[in-house]
Write a structure and sequence with these properties.
alpha+beta, binds tetrahydrodeoxyuridine, Cytidine Deaminase, domain 2, about 140 residues
């Protein structure tokens, strides 16, 4: 199977968009701002931020927001997502996606889907879904 590959420029652009989305984050409870930029196979990029709620479990992660946005715009196949997160007043970190978001990704993405954790457009780690979510439950399990 062909592996997903992205140029440094494409990764840098995704990172920049994820970092920019942190400014839209609605995080009055955790004060932890997360932005995400999701690259669809057709070249479109969908963004998201975390959207918290006074009823805490009703809140939504940045990655999930980006996927919901993408799917609602007709995209179903994806190459990569860049994620940028950290405390409002603190340093950025390589913010790993939570378990629910990994499951959400598993619905639409193959194992070679790239998960880019970024602090700046030049400072990032690249992982794959296979690596971050081995032995995942997917639509195939229901067949
Ligand atoms: N958060 C995300 O948006 N993505 C992640 O992968 C980790 C956590 C959000 C959820 C909540 O709004 C805040 O970060 C603190 O958990």
């Amino acid at each position: 199977m062909e592996q997903n590959r992205l140029s440094r420029d494409s990764i840098g652009k995704l990172c920049e968009m994820a970092l920019g989305m942190r400014s839209r984050s609605y995080a009055p409870y955790s004060h932890f701002r997360v932005g995400a930029a999701l690259l669809a196979k057709d070249g479109r990029i969908f963004t998201g931020c975390n959207v918290e709620n006074a009823g805490f479990p009703a809140g939504c992660c940045a990655e999930k927001t980006a996927f919901a946005q993408a799917v609602s715009e007709g995209a179903r196949e994806f190459t990569a997502i860049a994620i940028s997160g950290g405390p409002e007043d603190g340093a950025l970190q390589y913010c790993p996606p939570c378990g629910v978001c990994r499951q959400f990704m598993s619905e639409f993405c193959r194992g070679d889907f790239l998960i880019i954790l970024t602090k700046t457009p030049d400072d990032y780690e690249v992982h794959t879904l296979d690596e971050l979510m081995p032995m995942r439950f997917t639509p195939k399990n229901l067949l």
